[in-house]
Amino acid sequence: MPHLMLEHSGNIREQVDVEHLFRELHAALSEVGGFRVQDFKSRAVRLNAFIGDGTYEQAFVNLDIRTFAGKPAEAKRLISQEALRVLGRHFHRTMAETSCDISVQITELNRESYSRTRSEDLVPQVPSLQESTAP
Fold first, then answer.
1. Through-space distance between the first and last CA atoms of the chain, rounded to whole angstroms
2. Which Gene3D superfamilies match (predicted)?
3. What is the pTM of this model?
């Protein structure tokens, strides 16, 4: 945790280096949010079908930060603002050349209803040398 889900319209002006963007977000959000960098799970999706009023080229960038519930309101505000600051730097050309909204939301996940499995849960335990040589 956390999961970062970045969605953006297909008409953004930048050639986004997603790996660089996420590395910067991970570092920044770790600092203000207390997350461990190795715990981020991040992905980006370009959306070519989106609705606008059609009178001016519209664009959007939205980051959904999914994390377990329990952070104080002030901590969530700082996390959201820091993410918005990083996104603003990465999408400044789109902001200048289109009618663009950049937004950040924090979605709180309930621990009781969140399920997962990990690779290490599925890997069979390798017997020790002593166990494998026993008759």
1. 45
2. Macrophage Migration Inhibitory Factor
3. 0.82
Q: Convert 52-85 to b/e letters by CB count within 10 Å (16 or more is b).
A: eeeeeebbbbbbebbbeeebeeeebebbbebbee
List per-residue pLDDT tens for the chain, 135 residues long. Answer: 899 999 999 989 999 999 999 999 999 999 999 999 999 999 999 998 666 776 568 899 999 999 999 999 999 999 999 999 999 999 999 999 998 999 999 999 887 777 777 777 777 666 655 555 555
* CA 84 to mean position of chain CA atoms: 12
C-alpha span between 128 and 60 (Å, rounded): 55
Report d(CA 53, CA 60) in Å as an integer: 13
